[in-house]
C-alpha cells in the first residue's frame, strides 16, 4: 500500500483552508443591502426546508453536529467548491467570450515553477501513469496569437492525490506554469491523471455516505490561462470515455472541455491538442 493512501480528510482540509486564506483577499465591499438580501434568502431556503420537510430535533441536531465538524476538519473549501462553486462560476462567466471555464476547486497553488515551452511538469522519477502531451495555442477571441501567455496547470497523480495537500509528494509535483512561444503555442508533458475521489473519512465523506451518493470526480487537469490585458480563464479538461463525466459530484463538466487523446509512440503515450481563446479585459 502506498504511503499516499494515508492521506486524511482532516489533513487535506486543513491545508485547503490554509491555502484559501493565503490566496484570497476577502474584502468587505458588500453593501448592507446586499448582505441583507443574500443572507435572508439563504436562511429562508433552509427554514422552508425545515417547514416543508417537517425536520425533527434529531435531524436538526445531526445537522448542527455535522456543520461543526465541517469547520473543525477544515472542509468548508471542499464542501463549497464541490456543491456550490459551479453556480458561482456559471454566473461569473455567463457573458464572457472565448473558451469555456469551470470551477477552480480547493487545490490551486499560485506561483508554480515556470517552464519554457515545450516543458515537462515536475514529477517523480517513477511517476505512475500514462505519459500525456497536451499542446495548443493561446489566442485572442479573433484568433490572433498571444505570445508570452501563462498556462498554469495542476492535477492529481495516478492515485488521485494533489501535491501540497497530501503527504509524501514533492512540493510542486504535477504543477507548473508554461509560457507560450512567439506563435502563442504551448506544449506540456505530464502523465494522465486518474479519477478523483473526495476524501471519504471526513465530514463531506460522511454526508455522501449518509445520503447514498458517490464521491467521484472524473479525471481532470486544472488550468488557469492568462495574458496581459485579457481576462484570465480558470478551467478544467476531462477525458473522453472516462468515468463520471456525466455524474461529476462537483457538477463541473462541460462538453467543450472533454479531450480525446490519441495514441503516440505505438500507444504507450497519449497526445492531445487544446486551444484557448481569451476575451479582452474589461
Ligand atoms: C478536486 O480535485 C476538485 O477539482 C474539486 C472541484 C473538488 C474537490 C477536489
Ligand atoms: Fe481537482
Characterize the structure shown.
By secondary structure, the chain is α/β, with parallel strands linked by helices. It has a domain at 92-278: Protocatechuate 3,4-Dioxygenase, subunit A (Sandwich). It has helices at 9-23, 32-53, 57-72, 76-83, 85-93, 203-211; strands spanning 114-115, 119-120, 131-140, 150-154, 175-179, 185-191, 196-197, 216-217, 220-226, 233-239, 258-259, 262-264, 269-273, 276-278. The protein has a 6-stranded mixed sheet with strand order 1-5-4-9-10-11, with no helix packed on it. The chain is globular. It starts with 8 loop residues before the first helix and ends with a strand. The mean pLDDT is 95. Fe (iii) ion (FE) binds at residues 105, 107, 196, 220, 222.
Question: What's this entry about, in short?
Answer:
This protein is α/β, with parallel strands linked by helices. It has helices at residues 9-23, 32-53, 57-72, 76-83, 85-93, 203-211, and strands at residues 114-115, 119-120, 131-140, 150-154, 175-179, 185-191, 196-197, 216-217, 220-226, 233-239, 258-259, 262-264, 269-273, 276-278.
**Strand order within the widest beta sheet:** 1-5-4-9-10-11
Assess the beta-strand content as a share of residues: 15-25%
Give the ordered list of helices and strands.
HHHHHEEEEEEEHEEEEEEE
Mean pLDDT, all residues: 95
- Major sheet: size, sense and barrel closure? 6 strands, mixed
Cα gyration radius (Å)? 20 Å
Rough shape? globular
Low-confidence stretches: none
